[in-house]
Specification:
470 residues, four-stranded antiparallel beta sheet, two-stranded parallel ribbon
Length: 470
């Protein structure tokens, strides 16, 4: 009974772990699919898209200041029964005219007669009132117009930055993608070397057991085996770190399992690199250069903005008011229902500050022009250097490929001789060290080619695809 009670929770736990393992997401991606996935889920790319939207909203805020502004209001007044006193009645009325002339017509004026021989006072009741008003106004300055132009340039710059972020994201994914493939290839080569060494170590130990070899030879090979195992474990840990980096670049679930389907041979192509070297450099396609051009345009517009401080400000408004009295008698209403107005203001004298601003803007513009020209020369020098780096990396890759092939054949030959007693353990150990070194040099050569290729693609703002990638 106790055994059953212990067995049931263990079974449930095992089933839960199995279900969790089955739910672990698996990402099976080619290089192109990985780049597309990153463009959709990478946080930096999402922020770049949001920056473009923010720039567009900033432009609309600037445009909004040039459009009519309409507001409505309601005011309520209550003077708590106060009556405006106009003075004594009869004596006051005796001073009032009997008629007034309006538009050439004489209109008599009558006043209520006093019901008493005594003087009476008259007044205007101040009844509670409410006023509803609608006001529409507009003001336009030269600075607002130029500000809108500057916002258009800002949108273009933000879009260029977004495309630059997209380019960098694709490059980062490709770099890490290739690094993972190369590291996996490294592990495979090391595993192959380890299997050969373990076989030699076992054969040597068997020879020692029958007295055909010395124990020191077997010990040397065992040390070599242990060292190679440590190297493999370190490489596997580095491989896992690269996989974690790839998941971060993709913006994917950190617990996802990666399955990369594009091989190194499909990415690394001499024909591809040759096309890249022969493409030529169109500097206007480079995003950094485009940003410098836009920055120069901003500096130029700022000169116009400084001049706009000397232009007049035009403004106009329209107001509608409707005043209503809430008492039994209508009050004295002097509020016109409609009103329009316009104004023009022109700055005259500011002690030379505007002139100083104009001179400063011109200096900023000249600095922007100088920066663009210097950057243009720097980019052309960088292009020549990257072409040189890629050509050198291709030559090194070719040499290391042949070196790895030769070293592998030498190792196999010495292993065969060692089995027949025609080679020493020292020769085998040295050959094993040589092949591990050759593998490391080959892997480094592959990474150098890929890194130089990515750097040149970024500079040229292009990505020439192999036939297998299309």
């Amino acid at each position: 009974m106790i055994l059953k009670r212990l067995t049931l929770p263990l079974v449930l736990a095992a089933l839960s772990l199995a279900a969790t393992a089955q739910e672990k997401p698996i990402l099976r991606l080619s290089l192109e699919e990985a780049q597309k996935y990153a463009l959709e889920h990478n946080a930096a790319m999402q922020n770049a898209d949001l920056d473009v939207k923010k720039a567009e909203l900033s432009r609309w805020k600037t445009l909004g200041t040039m459009l009519p502004q309409v507001k409505a209001g309601f005011d309520y007044q209550n003077m708590c029964g106060y009556t405006m006193n106009l003075g004594g009645g009869n004596s006051m009325m005796s001073m009032m005219p009997d008629s007034v002339t309006i538009g050439g017509m004489t209109v008599p004026i009558s006043f209520p007669s006093s019901t008493s021989s005594e003087n009476t006072s008259s007044g205007i009741p101040m009844n509670p009132s409410g006023t509803f008003s609608i006001t529409a106004s507009i003001a336009v300055t030269g600075a607002q117009i130029v500000g809108t132009m500057l916002q258009n340039i800002a949108i273009q710059m933000t879009d260029i930055s977004r495309r630059q972020t997209e380019q960098q994201t694709r490059a980062n994914v490709k770099n890490v993608y290739v690094s993972i493939l190369v590291m996996e290839q490294t592990v495979g080569l090391l595993d192959s070397s380890l299997a050969n060494l373990e076989r030699l170590a076992a054969t040597t130990q068997a020879s020692v057991d029958v007295g055909a070899a010395e124990q020191v030879d077997a010990d040397k090979l065992q040390v070599q085996v242990a060292s190679l195992k440590n190297s493999i474990n370190s490489t596997r840990r580095s491989l896992q770190a690269l996989r974690n980096t790839m998941l971060l670049q993709l913006g994917a679930d950190v617990n996802a399992e990666l399955n990369l389907t594009t091989s190194v041979d499909e990415i690394l192509s001499v024909d591809h690199a040759t096309q890249l070297l022969a493409k030529g450099f169109d500097i206007t396609k480079n995003y950094s250069y485009q940003l410098l051009e836009q920055n120069e345009q901003v500096a130029k517009r700022n000169i116009t903005m400084a001049w706009m401080d000397l232009t007049p400000t035009l403004s106009a408004y329209y107001q509608y008011s409707d005043k209503t009295y809430f008492g039994k008698e209508a009050g004295f209403n002097m509020t016109p229902p409609n009103m329009i107005g316009a104004s023009v203001s022109l700055p005259l004298f500011t002690s030379g500050t505007r002139y100083a601003n104009i001179k400063s803007a011109k200096i900023d513009y000249q600095e922007a022009v100088n920066s663009r020209r210097q950057a243009e020369d720097g980019l052309r020098v960088q292009y020549n250097q990257l072409c040189y780096d890629l050509a050198s990396a291709l030559e090194t890759y070719d040499i290391q490929s042949r070196n790895l092939d030769v070293t592998q054949r030498v190792f196999n030959n010495l292993t065969e001789k060692y089995n027949y007693g025609r080679a020493s353990s020292l020769e085998v150990t040295n050959a094993s060290t040589d092949i591990i070194s050759a593998q490391s040099s080959y892997i480094q050569a592959v990474m150098n080619v890929v890194s130089a290729q990515i750097a040149l693609e970024d500079l040229l703002n292009c990505e020439i695809k192999n036939e297998n990638e299309k």
